[in-house]
Amino acid sequence: MLSVNSTKSVFCTFLVTGIPGLEDLYIWISIPFCAMFLITIVGNMTIIIVIWREQPLHVPMYLFLAMLAASDLGLSLFTFPTMLRIFLLAARELTTSACFTQMFFIHTFQDLESAIILAMAFDRYVAISCPLHYHSILTNTVIARIGLAIVVRTFTVQLPLPILLGRLNFCYSNVLSHSYCLHPDIIKLSCSNTRVNSIFGLFVVLSTMGLDFLLILLSYILILKTVLSMASHSGRLKSLNTCISHLCAVVLFFTPMICLSMLHRFGPRLPSYVYVTLANMHFLIPPVMNPIVYVMKTKQIRDKIKKLYTIKTTVKAHATSIS
């Protein structure tokens, strides 16, 4: 903590917060969080490896799913470890540079996931509306360009955030209200003028996740219009069934975020653990649930996973018998 004008103190570290009011239960709370982290790593890595190794899965739907698994993996690697440090080691302190770095990567992977979910909505729209031209529209080149555009957009809007934070002083408090560093949470603690940071932060949210959500809604309106125009009842059900996994991903990602935003702006003042829980649901639940949902709902993925593990088991048994 540095002294400024002998009347204020500028903090050089931040203290992240666990779940307020449940400090005595942190050891027990850490057990489900450790399990969730393990499921996230194993589930998303399995999907990435299976899609990478299996040539029949090198089609638009599964390539976008691999991108989603990669973004989920990145998001979990920058959220779960910090929470587990709090629960298991009572380690709350982060340096300013570590906090800004964590904030950058959390928001980067958050925006990447939002954009990938939008790309997957476009994939479903093309598959249902133009099934005969699906592979000619979504070629590998087009998918690569979509992936590049997602990465460029995300880094373009996210890179200025830590740079703009670097000019601020933090002297009101250094205690963050979440278990990881988030941009709105950090700027609340600044005693400098944060007008530019607030305006740019709002612009980033509206131009990324806000715009993505509206375009996803538009995609599903067009999909519903196409499905309702189909003559066959079985055709309608089959088309809608291909969207269930993606709809689950949309609900898991956007619902906690919208609820949290509405509560902050229009809802009654609730205990702090309610806001912390909703934030945790937004950042932690999608990486855990997305691989589970896609494995359960996608037969091709299930079959390839079974094939992969059957081959490994056979090779291991063969090696054991030789030795």
Automatic annotation (TrEMBL):
<dbReference type="InterPro" id="IPR050402">
    <property type="entry name" value="OR51/52/56-like"/>
</dbReference>
<keyword id="KW-0297">G-protein coupled receptor</keyword>
<dbReference type="GO" id="GO:0004984">
    <property type="term" value="F:olfactory receptor activity"/>
</dbReference>
<dbReference type="InterPro" id="IPR000276">
    <property type="entry name" value="GPCR_Rhodpsn"/>
</dbReference>
<feature type="transmembrane region" description="Helical">
    <location>
        <begin position="199"/>
        <end position="223"/>
    </location>
</feature>
<feature type="transmembrane region" description="Helical">
    <location>
        <begin position="244"/>
        <end position="267"/>
    </location>
</feature>
<feature type="transmembrane region" description="Helical">
    <location>
        <begin position="273"/>
        <end position="296"/>
    </location>
</feature>
<keyword id="KW-0472">Membrane</keyword>
<dbReference type="GO" id="GO:0005886">
    <property type="term" value="C:plasma membrane"/>
</dbReference>
<dbReference type="GO" id="GO:0004930">
    <property type="term" value="F:G protein-coupled receptor activity"/>
</dbReference>
<dbReference type="Pfam" id="PF13853">
    <property type="entry name" value="7tm_4"/>
</dbReference>
<keyword id="KW-1003">Cell membrane</keyword>
<dbReference type="InterPro" id="IPR000725">
    <property type="entry name" value="Olfact_rcpt"/>
</dbReference>
<feature type="transmembrane region" description="Helical">
    <location>
        <begin position="25"/>
        <end position="52"/>
    </location>
</feature>
<feature type="transmembrane region" description="Helical">
    <location>
        <begin position="100"/>
        <end position="122"/>
    </location>
</feature>
<keyword id="KW-1133">Transmembrane helix</keyword>
<keyword id="KW-0812">Transmembrane</keyword>
<feature type="transmembrane region" description="Helical">
    <location>
        <begin position="59"/>
        <end position="80"/>
    </location>
</feature>
<keyword id="KW-0552">Olfaction</keyword>
<dbReference type="InterPro" id="IPR017452">
    <property type="entry name" value="GPCR_Rhodpsn_7TM"/>
</dbReference>
<comment type="similarity">
    <text>Belongs to the G-protein coupled receptor 1 family.</text>
</comment>
<protein>
    <recommendedName>
        <fullName>Olfactory receptor</fullName>
    </recommendedName>
</protein>
<keyword id="KW-0716">Sensory transduction</keyword>
<dbReference type="GO" id="GO:0071396">
    <property type="term" value="P:cellular response to lipid"/>
</dbReference>
<feature type="domain" description="G-protein coupled receptors family 1 profile">
    <location>
        <begin position="43"/>
        <end position="294"/>
    </location>
</feature>
<feature type="transmembrane region" description="Helical">
    <location>
        <begin position="142"/>
        <end position="165"/>
    </location>
</feature>
<keyword id="KW-0675">Receptor</keyword>
<keyword id="KW-0807">Transducer</keyword>
